[in-house]
Structures are given as C-alpha cells and as structure tokens.
Automatic annotation (TrEMBL), chain A:
The lineage of its organism: Bacteria, Bacillati, Actinomycetota, Actinomycetes, Micromonosporales. It holds the Pfam family BPD_transp_1. GO terms for biological process: transmembrane transport. This is Nitrate ABC transporter permease. Keywords: Cell membrane, Membrane, Transmembrane, Transmembrane helix, Transport. The gene is ssuC_2.
UniProtKB/TrEMBL annotation, chain B:
This is Nitrate ABC transporter permease. Pfam families: BPD_transp_1. InterPro entries: MetI-like, MetI-like_sf. One of its GO terms (cellular component) is plasma membrane. It comes from the Bacteria.
From TrEMBL, chain C:
Coiled coil: none annotated. Keywords: ATP-binding, Nucleotide-binding, Transport. It comes from the Bacteria. CDD domains: ABC_NrtD_SsuB_transporters. Residues 3-236 form the ABC transporter domain. InterPro entries: AAA+_ATPase, ABC_transporter-like_ATP-bd, ABC_transporter-like_CS, ABC_transporter_ATP-bind, P-loop_NTPase. This is ABC transporter. The keyword ATP-binding applies. The keyword Kinase does not apply. GO terms for molecular function: ATP binding; ATP hydrolysis activity.
Length: 254, 259, 282
C-alpha cells in the first residue's frame, strides 16, 4: 500500500511538470514539460559521451570514497583507541571539520586543473570527516565491561580491537560510510560542475551554457536517481552486514 | 587547576605543532602555489580590509542568512504538515528523497534560468538546497512523537496550536536541529558556489578572482577566511543548540548514566 | 452514579481475524470512590482504561461521566500513565509540566500558580519546582505526574498501573500517598493494577476481571479500616483473607481461559497480536 502511494506521488510530480508549462505559470523555456525532458533523456542515453561522463563521475566517486573510508577508519580507530591521541586531536578535528570543502576549489584548480585529481581532492576531504567522526563515536561506545572482560581473559591489544572494538564500532562505521557515500557524490558533481573536470557535472554545465534546457533537466534527474540509488545501496549493505546486530542503530545526531 | 591546565595544553598542543610545521615547512618555499605561511598571514589584513568586508563578505553573509532563514521556515512548516499526516507522508516521501538526493549545486544553473544572476538567485539557491535536510528531519521528528506523551496531551485537553507548540515542535526539535546543522554546511557551500558561477561581489567571487589572476597569497588568505567563517558559524550553531536543547542533552546524559 | 461503564465491548481488527479484548463490562463509580481494577495479565486493563479516558472508541456499549456519554477525552478526567518517563514533557520543568494543562483550561495566572504549588506540596515535591523530570528518580517523576493530575482538579482520576515500574519501597510510599490524597481531597479514583496486594490495600472495592475476552468476575467490598498503613494493614488477618480470595479468583480466571484455549485452540488475548496502528482512536 505505501508503495502504491509513493508511486502515485512520483507520478504526480511527473504530471505536474508536464502540466505546469501549459498553464503559463512558468515558461516552457525554463521548465520544459515532462515528455520533452524524457525525450532529452532518451537522446542522452543514446550518446556515448553520456556514458563516459557517467563513468567518470562514478570512478571519481568510488575512488574518492574508498580513500576517505580507508583513511577515516584507520585514523578513527588509532585515535579512538589511544586516549592521549584522542585528547590531543580533539580540538584540531573540531577546527578542521567545519571548513567548507568548497574552500579547496581554487587550490584544486591550481594544483590539478581540470583533471580527475581535482575532483578526488574535494571528494576525499569532504567524506573523510563523515567517516572519522562516526568511527570516533563508535569507538567511544565500547562497553567498558566488555573491554574489562576481554582484558581479564588475557586478550592482547590486537585481539581486543578485533573482537571488542570493531564489532561495537561497526554500526557507526556503516553509518559513516553511508553518509560519506552521499557527500562524495555531491562533491564529485560539484567539482565537475564548477571546475569542469570530466563527468556528469561538467555535462550539466555544458548543457546550461548551450541552452539545452531539457537536457540539463534530464541530467539533473540522472544525478538525483544516482543519489537515490547510492542511498538505497548503502542502506542495503548496512542491513546485510549488520543483520546480526540487535538493532541497526549507531547514528549520532551531530 | 592542574587538570584544567592539562586540558588546555592538550587542546593546544597539536594545533601549535601543525601551525609550526606549516610555518617552517613553507618558510623557504619557492613553490609558486604554496607560498610561505608568513606571506599569507602578512597578506591577510591587507586583503580583508574594512572596505572588502563591507563589499564582499557582508553581502555573502546576508545572502546566506536570508536563504537559510527561508529554508528553516519552509522546511519546518512543510515538515510538520507532511509528518503529521500518514497518507501525505506515504505519497510524498519518495519525491522528497529524490529531491534530497540531487546534489544541491546543480540547482544553480536551474535557478539561474528563473531568477537570473542577481541576489534573488543566490538566496533562492541557498534556500532550495538547505530546505531538504530540514524538511526530511522534521518529518522524521514529527513522526516519532512519543505515543504516551501524545495520549497525555489528549487526555488533558491539549490540542490544536497548544499541542503543536508544546508537544510536536518541542519533541521534534533535536531532529530539526540535526537537519539545520546539515543545512548550514550545505548553505555555506552554496553561498560560495553560487558566487563562483555568476556574481560581481561576494567571498566566492573574490577568491576565484584571486585564483584567476594568480594572486596566490591572496587566494590562500581567502581560503583561510572561509575556513574561519565555517568554524565561527559552526561554533555559533553549537552554542545556540546547546542552549535550546539543554533538556535533550541532559536527558541523554541521565539515560546514559543509568546504563 | 458519577462514572458509568455500560456493556462495554472492544474488538480490535487483527491482521487475520478480529480480536475480542473486552467482551462485556458493566460497573460504576460513585463520587468519592476509590476503586481498584485487578485482573490477570493481558486481560485488557489498559484497553479498558483508554476507553474510559476517551482515548479509544469502544466497539459497543458506552462510558458515561455525570450522565454524559464520553466520545473523546472529557474535561473532567485526568489520567496517570504507567510510563512516567514518557508521560512528562522532558523539555519542561516540573512546574511547567504541572501548569500546562491548567493554562490550557484557561485558569488565571494567580490561581494557576497556587494550584501548582499546592499540588506539588501535597505530593512532597515542594522544592523541586525548577528541576527537569529526568533529573528526578522514577518515584519522584511519578509524583510529578500525580501532582499534574491533582492540580487539574478532575472529577475522576484514572490511574493505569502507575507504580508497576518503580521499586518496592518507593511503591509503598506512593500507595500511601494515594490513600492520603483520596482522604484529604475527596477525589474519585479508579486504580488499575495487576498487583493483588496493592488492589486490596488501596481500594474500598476491588473489581476482579476475567481473562480476555474480559468480563467482570466479581466486585469485592474491602472491609478493612479507613486508616491503613503498610505495617498493620498488611499483617491484618482480614487483609490476608481478602488477598487470598482475590488471588484464588484470578487463578481460576486464568485456569478457565486455559481450558477455553484447550477447547477452542486459540488465544483470545489481544496485546501480542495487534499493532498500535490498528488500534482505532476516537
């Protein structure tokens, strides 16, 4: 039943976009009706350049996300497990985290021009913090009793990380990865759009500057669908990996 | 006392080390793109003078404030409407999720079509990007109103506007605040991006101008200013939040203590 | 008769089949009564209370307050819930929690303040006005909820297993508090519990319910002295007789429902097989 209602909502949106230009509320030059956007989408899909742009975006997203996740987990566990390191880094993390990633754009342009590295730099910077913060919360959430128990049974440092710390932190890690995956896509498209690195973003910029309005909407719809797809996939992986866990929780409202 | 000193020492140690590393690491730098930190800091007060703050920084901040305010207002109002009707929620949820998943900066070219390249465009871009996390978090928060508390309100005749004010908005407020925090960082991003696209003033515009004219230390000082701005806004937000949600954090601590 | 329950029946639309939580309940409360409702667990006590409070529409029959049929939460009724932690507003101080319903009733500021101060004093929380509920212990939180109900000046005070989640010593104190309030303020109380001792100790009358689908099994007058206290009343031989009687009745009720179960092969109890969303509200 909810699925039908949800589909009707989506159908309503498509219908609204189809009808609005005819009512004269908005000009069809600014918001083309659904069928023209759909036609533009079909044109795009038929073009090789679209697919290579999509591929570029996905590569930048995946590579950037992988680097950020690996670095975030490693840094998070090391910092979180050593109280002194934690105390030392807390202020720096609080300081660096809110620095907007877009501040890096001019730097990225200077250093890498319109290469994919520009995109990667922004993606890694933005998504690293998402992972790191969640991992730190996860490590902090380790039950002291479980930790004491492991110690009293003579488990070494590595075994404690493996059997106590990691399972506790895993739900948080997954949350971090899910958030980072969404942020990584946003930054990948942004970098392409603003800097002109190859990908869907720069294709949107081209469509805009050549006044191909329906194509622009079609491409934006694709980025939205990509975002929804990434969210759903991340949630699916989360559920799969954490099915043993009492509850798929571990999100912090920060 | 020693405890406090230790904490201050720990908090300052790494920043000092990093600052020193940056300072001395770039001291003799002849890399054109990475000027010495001394150079950047010397440039900073020259670049960000009173005039520039009035002409570039302030307009950026005003646009951010306007767009963000519109987004908070619209997001909370719509969120309450959608969140308290089960049917409406089921119909709209996929549509809202779709809009949230669209990377906000691609809104810039779309909104430029409708609103040109003036201040209106920038405010609308910021509002249109910030509204989704606030809206969706409000929906979540409104939906999660405790059943016992809702029954309590009904049996004591607390209905209508009083219910909205004392029950719905208050119990959703931690979620709303989480959405507002996400929206704030999106807002800063959009403030900068919208000015990089088409503008004649503003922080983003100025920094890109520096980059294009290869005024590298000036550009670095701009990046530094953006960083400080992000930090300042996040600290302000935190202060406001910890005041407004003191009950929530206190309750959480109390529950944690029981565990 | 102040509060009148007539032929009350409540059927939940279950996923596969309708579940009859309450079959046919008829009883009444006069002004100034303190009546305890006791029954085996899962017998629909909470359902009954929600119907009486106007939070849930009965399938058949009716509840009347001062001879007016209840179709929604009536103004003259206050409810104290079992989940004290969830029925107080965590974002309001103790004082604001007690005051809010009064503000909504349109009582003038001065009078409101007096009522709040009196109510908090009478439950022994005169110095906790500015605390938040979550800063208090469970027993104290429930006192706040009771103060809120008292300040509301209801015709009837409904209490839904209010002490089920507090420890035994606190519970004894709170029981005495209820007796005290009742004697001092003359408020009419319907007290729902699953605790037999508590029901006998508190009530003038004890209404014993059957297992679900629920009917009234017996209405028992409690002929213990007016003044009760934890030590002497509970060691009184009459108290022991009464509680043994109630206990036997409840055991019998459970046994009968087991026999019915064996005969018909299905459970009648509703709580486990229904979800909250299916419970139709008024």
């Amino acid at each position: 039943m909810p699925a039908i209602l949800g589909l009707s909502g989506l159908a309503g949106l498509l219908l609204l976009v189809e009808v609005l230009p005819y009512t004269g509320v908005v000009s069809a030059d600014f918001l083309p009706p659904t069928h023209r956007i759909a036609a533009a989408l079909v044109d795009e899909v038929a073009e090789g350049a679209f697919w290579s742009a999509l591929w570029d975006t996905l590569v930048a997203w995946a590579v950037g996300l992988a680097i950020a996740v690996a670095a975030g987990i490693a840094a998070g566990i090391v910092i979180g497990a050593v109280p002194l390191l934690r105390a030392l880094t807390a202020s720096t993390i609080e300081f660096l985290r809110p620095i907007p990633s877009v501040a890096m754009i001019p730097l990225a342009v200077l250093l890498y021009g319109t290469e994919i590295q520009s995109t990667l730099m922004l993606v890694v910077y933005a998504s690293f913090w998402q992972v790191l913060i969640q991992v730190l919360y996860g490590v902090q959430d380790v039950d002291p009793v479980a930790e004491e128990t492991a110690r009293s049974y003579g488990l070494g440092a590595w075994a404690r990380v493996r059997y106590v710390l990691w399972p506790t932190a895993l739900p948080y890690v997954m949350t971090g990865v899910r958030l980072a995956a969404a942020v990584a896509l946003v930054l990948a498209i942004t970098a392409e759009l603003v800097i002109g690195a190859p990908g869907l973003g720069s294709r949107i910029a081209v469509a805009q500057s050549s006044n191909a309005v329906p194509n622009m909407y079609a491409l934006i719809a694709v980025t939205g669908l990509l975002g929804v797809g990434i969210n759903l996939a991340a949630r699916g992986v989360e559920r799969l990996l954490l099915s043993w866990h009492q509850s798929v929780r571990g999100e912090v409202l920060v | 006392m020693t405890n406090l000193l230790t904490r201050i020492g720990l908090a300052l140690a790494l920043p000092v080390v990093l600052f020193a590393a940056w300072w001395f690491g770039t001291e003799g730098s002849d890399n054109f793109y990475v000027p010495p930190l001394r150079e950047i800091l010397r440039t900073f007060p020259e670049v960000w003078t009173g005039e520039r703050i009035r002409a570039d920084v302030l307009p950026s901040l005003i646009r951010l404030a306007a767009g963000y305010t519109v987004a908070v207002f619209a997001g909370v109002c719509l969120g309450v409407l959608v969140g308290s009707r089960r049917r409406v929620r089921a119909v709209l949820e996929p549509v809202l999720e779709f809009f949230r998943a669209i990377p906000p900066p691609v809104l810039v070219p779309v909104i430029m079509l409708f609103a040109g390249i003036g201040d209106t465009m920038k405010v609308v871009v910021i509002a249109a990007g910030c509204v989704w996390p606030i809206l969706l978090n409000t929906v979540e928060g409104v939906r999660a109103v405790d059943g016992v508390l809702a029954d309590t309100c009904r049996s004591y005749g607390i209905t209508g506007p009083a219910r909205l004010r004392h029950l719905v908005l208050r119990s959703a407020s931690p979620q709303i605040a989480a959405g507002m925090r996400q929206a704030l960082s999106i807002g800063i991003i959009l403030m900068v991006i919208s000015e990089m696209f088409a503008a004649s003033n503003g922080l983003g515009f100025t920094i890109v101008q520096f980059q294009r004219s290869f005024a590298i230390p000036d550009m670095w000082s701009g990046i530094l200013l953006l960083g400080l701005l992000g930090l300042a806004l996040s600290v302000l937000f935190r202060l406001a939040e910890s005041r407004a949600l003191a009950w929530y954090h206190g309750q959480r601590r109390a529950q944690r203590g029981l565990r | 008769m102040l509060l009148d329950v007539r032929g009350l029946k409540k059927v939940y639309e279950g996923r596969q089949r309708p579940v009859e939580a309450i079959r046919d309940l008829t009883f009444g409360l006069d002004a100034g009564d303190l009546v305890c409702l006791v029954g085996p667990s899962g017998c629909g006590k909470t359902t009954l209370l929600k119907c009486m409070a106007g939070l849930l529409a009965p399938t058949e029959g009716e509840v009347r307050l001062r001879d007016k049929r209840i179709t929604g939460p009536p103004p003259g009724m206050a409810v104290v819930f079992q989940e004290y932690g969830r029925s107080l507003f965590p974002w309001m101080s103790v004082r604001d929690n007690v005051e809010l319903p009064l503000r909504n009733k349109g009582i003038a500021r001065r009078q409101r303040q007096d009522l709040v101060a009196q109510a908090l004093a009478v439950v022994g929380l005169a110095d906790a006005h500015h605390a938040y509920p979550w800063q208090l212990s469970g027993g104290m939180q429930q006192r706040v909820a009771i103060a809120r109900a008292v300040a509301y000046q209801p015709d009837v005070l409904l209490m839904d297993e209010p002490f089920a989640a507090v420890d035994a010593q606190t519970r004894a104190d709170l029981e005495d508090l209820i007796r005290d309030l009742w004697r001092k303020l003359g408020v009419t109380i319907l007290f729902v519990t699953h605790d037999i001792d508590e029901a006998v100790y508190l009530g003038q009358r004890v209404i014993i319910l059957s297992s679900s689908p629920t009917v009234v099994r017996e209405v028992l007058g409690v002929d213990l002295p007016e003044r009760r206290d934890q030590l002497t009343t509970r060691s009184d031989s009459r108290f022991t007789e009464l509680r043994a009687h109630v206990y036997a009745q409840i055991q019998a009720a459970k046994r009968e429902s087991m026999e019915i179960l064996a005969t018909f092969g299905r459970a009648g109890s509703g709580k486990s097989s229904r979800s909250q969303s299916e419970a139709k509200s008024v």
